[in-house]
Amino acid sequence: MEMSAKCDSALQQIEEKRYEQEWIDEGYTDILKYGIAFYKKNCLIKKSV
After folding, report:
1. How many Å from the N-terminal Cα to the C-terminal Cα in the chain?
2. Confidence of residue 23 (pLDDT cuts 50, 70, 90)
3. N or C: which end of the chain has fewer CB within 10 A?
4. How much is the pLDDT for 30?
């Protein structure tokens, strides 16, 4: 699987498992979500919009 797809998969997991909910419950409103993939010395980062 290519790195871009891995980042998309990571972002999808964040949404499905609702990792941000704890922070929302604490009152945070600006939450950044990143999907990060590594391969050897390469790295790709995608941010949820």
Report:
1. 22
2. very high
3. C
4. 94
What is the DSSP code string of the chain?
--HHHHHHHHHHHHHHHTTTHHHHHTT------EEEEEETTEEEEEE--
pTM passes above 0.70: yes
**Residue 7: how many CB atoms within 10 A of its CB?**
19
The whole-angstrom separation of Cα 19 and Cα 13 is 9
Rounded CA separation 28/31 (Å) = 7
CA 26, CA 36: separation in Å to the nearest integer? Answer: 25
